[in-house]
Each structure stands twice: as C-alpha cells, then as structure tokens.
Amino acid sequence: MIDNEITIVTAFYDIGRKDIKNFERDNDKYLSYFEFLAGIKNKMIIYTQENIKEKILDTRKKHNLEDKTIIITKELQEFDEQGYKKIIDTFRNYDQSINRKNPNNIECISPMYCYLMYLKPFFVCDAIQRGLTDKNIMWLDFGFNHGGNFFVDKDQFNFYLQKQNSIDENKINLFSIKNDDKQTLANIYFSMETFLMGGIIFAKSKNWLLFKHHMQKCIKYFTSFGIIDDDQIMLLWCARNYRKNYNIIKVYFWFDSLYHFIPQNIAKKLKINTNQIKHYK
C-alpha cells in the first residue's frame, strides 16, 4: 500500500456496440483493451453485468491482483431511473442525427451509449456510498488507450498510479484536447468538436458527489431542448457553469492524460506510439 492511494472506478456493459455500423466493437475487443491496463496495481472497482464479470476478474488474476479487484453487477437503469427515462424519451421524440457533422456516430444513434457516458459519476458515487473507495478516486475508461493507441507495451504497466503536481486535490480534474474557444454549446453539438475528454476524471470523494449533481442538472437542461450527446459536451457544460469547481488540464492526445498519474521515473521509460514521440522529447 502506498500513501494516498488512488482508487480506480470503471465500468463495462454490453450496449450493443457490435451492431452499430462503423463502431463494431464486441465484448472481446473491449476485454482486450482492458488487458493493457489490468496490471495497474491500484484497487479497481469495476461495474459490469453478470455474464462478463468472470472474464474481467480472470484478467486481473493474471497479474495476481484479484485481491485488489471488486466487481459489482448492477443494472444500468438502476443508477438514475429519471435520467435514463429522459435520455430514452429524448431519442425517441427527437432525431439526434439531424444537422450533426458525423450523423452516424454512436452518440447520435444510441441512447444507451449516451446514458452510459452520463453515468460515470454515478458509478463512482455508488462505490463511495458502499464504502469501497479511498479518498482519492479516478474514473478510468475500461477501454482506455484502446489496447496500444498511445502507450504500446502493456508489460510495462505494473505500477501504481499516483497523482502528480498538476492535479488539484480540491477540484474536479478534467483533461482538454482543445482550449475552450467560447463557441455556443449549440454550435458544438452540431459540429461535434471535442474540447474536454472523459477518459480520465479525478477528484476527492466529496467532489464526486458535487460532479454527479452537476451532471444531473446538465441532463435536465439538455433534454429540455430536445438534445442529448455523450459526456464530452456535458463536461464542458459543467466546467463552464461551475468553473470554480473544475481544474482543466491541457494535453496533446486522447490518452496522454495518464501521464498526470504516472511517477516521472516510470513515465520516462514507457514506450509510446512513434508518431507521438516528438511531443515528449
């Protein structure tokens, strides 16, 4: 055990991705993505469904980390029944693909995907309420790094994640791939530009409860206009409306945000995609 260890919370549910054109990733694909990060030594709390949990546990067992793994099975609708209904009804009543830049993207056609992305703070708060977490809590996407998109050697991932100096312990820490240029949210909804990413989110337990409250407000306002999107634009809404509660950290790529939780002596040894090395010389 290290001081101030980070508890990792993540989730994987079968929401029919394999049946969505251009997003055909079945369960085995995501489980293979998870293999890349399964050697991280932090406690992991993983939400999933009954028919997948043993495969996830087996992956952690390969690294002798089953004692640092908690798997919880819970139906998705149970996390926020009102939010679930709002999202389903909005997709049913309003076409989310009209005038969107990429109308065939999963967030334009799958209400369950948008609901799952919305639930990130709900998973974390559920774990907090069960008394399972430490005070430092990270949300980490189950498929983070897409099996080698940025970091390329999974055998190197056998260390503890620890918050580095860029992390503000008093705020909700989000990562930005592009600086906020003050476009309206309506324009961003249609253009589908990404500013904030939800692959990693870090906060103390009390701020996760606040973040959940912000997301509940966000979904209420979005659905009142007949629109729904994934977590990226909702994160931007939260950060704009409650600026004092958020620490925004600029990064270069989708997955280099993990550097903000890797000790420097380890980070400098990690192999990364050769197309991206120039930014880290």
UniProtKB/TrEMBL annotation:
InterPro entries given in the database record: WlaTC/HtrL_glycosyltransf
Domain of life from the UniProt record: Bacteria
Protein name as annotated: Protein YibB
Gene designation: yibB
